[in-house]
Amino acid sequence: MNERMTQLFCRIGGKDEPLNRVDVSEKPASGRRAEKALYENSRIRATLTWEPVGEGRTRLACSWQNRTQEKLSCQLEIRIRTDFVYEHYVIPGVSLNGNDWGKGKEPKGLASGGEPWVFDYRRTTIPACTISENGDRYFALMASDESPLSMQASCSMLPQEDGTMVHRLLYPCIERPETYCRRDCYEPSHEDFLTFDPQEAKETAAWLLAGRPVRPNFATACVEDAALELLGSPFPSAYGTDEVKRLCCAFAERLVVETNGRKMFSIGQTPDGKGGFQNAEGYEFGWCGQNGMYARLFLERGLRTGDQKLICTALDNLDAWTHEAVEETGLIHTHYHWMLNGESDVEDTCNLGFAVLELTRAWSVMRKNGEDRPEWLEAARRIADFLISHWADEHGFGKAWNVKTGECADPAGTIGAYLIPGLVELYLADGRERWLEAARRACRFYRDRDLFSFQCTAGALDTYCIDKESSGPLLAGALALYEIDKAEEWLECAKLAGWYFCSWMFHHDIIPGENSDFARYGYRTLGGTSVSAQHHHIDPWGALMVPQLLRLWKITGDWHWHRRASLMWANAVQNLAPSQGKTIHGLFREAGAQNEGYHHCCWGDPGAPGFINDWLVAWPQAFCWNTAEQITDADLADPAQKSHKGSDIVKPSETFQKNDTE
User: Fold this and answer.
1) What does the pLDDT read at residue 30?
2) Quick one: 358 exposed, middle or buried, by C-beta within 10 A (0-12, 13-18, 19+)?
3) Nearest CA among 175, 171, 147 for reference residue 231
4) Which DSSP letter does residue 299 get?
5) Domain stops at, among 477, 503, 529
6) Could you say which DSSP state residue 31 is in?
7) Where is this region: Disordered (predicted)?
């Protein structure tokens, strides 16, 4: 891309005013690589500098100057038009080729009511990034984090009649024509402006990336690698893995309640109106509640330490699911409270997949310790048998089933991939080829239909859209198959699933408002994962995939996987309440507590951007504890790695800088 494909604009009073290129670009002198061009109109003069910094990477610097003798309030824009016909586009964390899949009202396409969507850098997982591609070429434009003004950018895309794409980078933070503020809801546009004193100049920088996609629809993988090298300041984990285990166990013990004569784990904690938190009603095997994972972790820790209380809680919990929740179909009620209250007999394949996996793992734990719990393994087998026998070539394992009648309630989505890790675990437990063949078939099906299109769906159960969570079991399942088969097919599938999953990871820290929760409590967005196309907030879900990302690093030798794993881990554990507890919003959080949602953009609450919610859901600590049992501090700390900026890691406070806009 060069100046012939570039246009500049300033927006004043709601009108875009173009800047005209007034000279032939300045060719680089001998020994220099940078090219310059001058643009201006009656108000703004801009000098653009293109500086190649490696194959397919160009730093685009711009000096913007107010030409007038008056104070100027405006918005600035760079437009770059590609010279190839695109087939696929991505705005990371916001729009995957237009978000066509799903039933929600999240931003669809590239325009609303004829006006182009504009999203600010706080909403995108790579700052103000836009990507267009075909099978042979890609182009991406993204903000730089080298200065606050450069970072405080926004992005948009304009498809052209000839099939090319115009990529837009706008300054400062702008969201038009509306702001997507909560699930399926909108507020008026968000408009910040830059203020120039008479004759004042301001500097911005951005990155242009170009090359060949790793495969069709996967240009984002190349952009992710570049973003890891060009952006972000990694920070250390707040806790060692042993301390994470202790804190998460302490939190989980407070979730234990007795219902129907059984020890169950509450789905989470909510404010109690007295300055603390209380357990919420609801007991779910997987997804948010993670009863199965907590029970297995209790069992492992109790057997290792001799803590009989942990062992008894685990046994009682797992017996509740396998003795009382199993239906004649072989499926189980994965919401224990629904079963007790007669609320619903429809359960999803996310929870059913977790049931197969965790019941089998728990059986293996007991077997290794000299005790058999055949009913646990039998329950896992019956779920797997049912879903394998009801496999559909068009829909795979489906999304939801009536556990009493055996009827499919919803066939759609990638969510059925949650069965793959459990099927592999069953094979490892009893050696039956039936489970392994079903896992291979499912992995190929969801890879070919969904992952190859860079689109995984329906795993985040409080949405119905394109998301990150449904790719997690594809990554874990493909790697589990690779460990057995050693086939390149599964390694390549795991890498694709890993790139897709990590496209939802934040590659930068937003600049928090001075009075925001993020600034007050030192929360970093780098390494956090955005939920889905329909839910735009960060959560610590990436913690669950850290072992798989580290495994990819060890197999491939590609350090990018290690960087991703360490970033996700540091993000996921940074806000765990320490042993003495912590207070947020005047509410005391006991040891190990952590909330689910971090509202990084204009989303959901008056305190956003930069708001920390007060829903202390069960799953984050289960995922952190589960991962802490599989990794060591040494796995995360690779002394050979340096920051691309020439320094090692930095403290959170060093990344927070004062907002440069009105």
Assistant:
1) 53
2) buried
3) 147
4) H
5) 503
6) T
7) 638-662
Phi–psi pair at 661, nearest 5 degrees:
-120, 170
Judge contact between 184 and 104, C-beta under 8 A: yes
DSSP 632-656: -HHHH--TT---TTS-----GGGG-
Dump strand ranges (E) for 452-576.
Answer: 529-530, 538-539
Residue with tokens 């690093």: 553
Alpha-carbon separation of residue 84 from 62, 130, 333, 480 (angstroms): 25, 15, 52, 39
Helix (H, G, I), strand (E, B) or coil at 72: strand
Count of domains forming the chain: 3
CA distance 7 to 46: 11
How many helices (H) and strands (E) would you count in the chain?
17, 33
Q: What is the largest CA-CA distance in the chain?
A: 85
Please give the Cα distance from 105 to 184 (Å, whole number).
5
User: Of 168, 203, 230, which residue is a domain's last?
Assistant: 230
SS3 of 40-61: the string is: ECCCEEEEEEEEEEECCEEEEE
C-beta separation of 228 from 507 below 8 A: yes
Q: Kindly state whether residues 129 and 210 are assigned to the same domain.
A: yes
Hey, what are 619's tokens? 């799953």
Whole-prediction pTM? 0.95
Alpha carbons 136 and 121: distance in angstroms, whole number: 28
Q: Which domain holds residue 361?
A: 325-460+469-503
How many Å apart are CA 479 and CA 485, to the nearest integer?
10
Same domain, 493 and 574: no
DSSP label of 511: -
Q: Helix 433-449 and helix 374-389: axis angle, to 10°? A: 50
Looking at this protein, which amino acid is placed at residue 14? G
Average pLDDT by consecutive 10-residue portion of the chain (662 residues)? 78 95 66 84 97 96 97 98 98 98 96 98 99 98 98 99 98 98 95 98 98 98 98 96 99 98 99 98 98 99 98 99 98 98 98 99 98 98 99 98 98 98 99 98 99 96 96 99 98 99 99 96 98 97 99 97 98 98 98 98 90 98 99 83 43 33 40
Q: Which two tokens stand for residue 548?
A: 């798989």
Q: What is the pLDDT of residue 1?
A: 44
Closest CA to 320 of 285, 364, 290, 346: 285
Distance of alpha carbon 609 from its chain centroid, rounded?
17
What are the helix (H) ranges across 176-324? 219-230, 241-255, 291-305, 308-324
